[in-house]
Design a protein that fits this description.
Layout: E1 3-6, E2 9-12, H1 16-56, H2 60-76, H3 95-111, H4 118-132, E3 133-135, E4 141-143, H5 155-178
Antiparallel strand pairs: 1-2, 3-4
Helix pairs in contact: 1-2, 1-4, 1-5, 2-3, 3-4
């Protein structure tokens, strides 16, 4: 039986369909991975980047401006209620709590008197920073945001797509590896 070598893989004649399907699973998985990255970057540009800037702001007006920008985008995307989880509704995936927390922080900034003392302003900014940022496992700070928000409301679709394409790609590599 003739064989063709392509980048270290041996393709035997008669295995064309298997190779085509296997390559399609690999392509589907790569597209899934790229789409997850793109949606994550888009969320960072439109929402979490502004939340980080609000947390880092030194003045009430700058913090209010960035928080308002983020809240407007959150409302435009309809991210006010529901959970990002697929199976279990865990607190870290509660969009409504997150949105209400951001809204109440924005209201606190709005009602702060312009005559407020520097201490009051500093306290509000510190409280805002604690609301918007969390410390990670290694001590690095990141913006508080429900897991899976970047692909919400398509979480189920992305989970099924990722699982099927990954299993198909792994299965294809196993068939190639164990095929003598």
């Amino acid at each position: 039986m003739e064989a063709t070598i392509f980048n270290g893989f041996i393709f035997r004649k008669g295995k064309t369909v298997r190779n085509f399907v296997g390559c399609m699973f690999i392509v589907l998985f790569l597209v899934w991975f790229i789409m997850r990255c793109v949606f994550g970057i888009q969320l960072q540009i439109a929402v979490t980047g502004h939340l980080k800037r609000a947390a880092d702001a030194n003045t009430i007006s700058l913090a209010q401006k960035e928080l308002t920008t983020a809240l407007q985008e959150i409302e435009r995307r309809g991210l006010k209620t529901d959970y990002t989880s697929i199976f279990f509704q865990t607190p870290d995936e509660d969009i409504e709590f997150w949105y209400n927390n951001l809204s109440s922080a924005s209201k606190e900034l709005e009602i702060l008197s312009p005559d407020a003392s520097q201490l009051e302003k500093s306290n509000i900014l510190m409280k805002l920073r604690e609301t918007l940022l969390d410390k990670g496992e290694n001590g690095a700070q990141h913006v508080t945001c429900p897991d899976g928000l970047s692909i919400y409301p398509r979480n189920v679709f992305f989970a099924i797509w990722g699982l099927i394409s990954l299993l198909g790609a792994v299965g294809y590599f196993m068939v190639i590896f164990f095929d003598n």
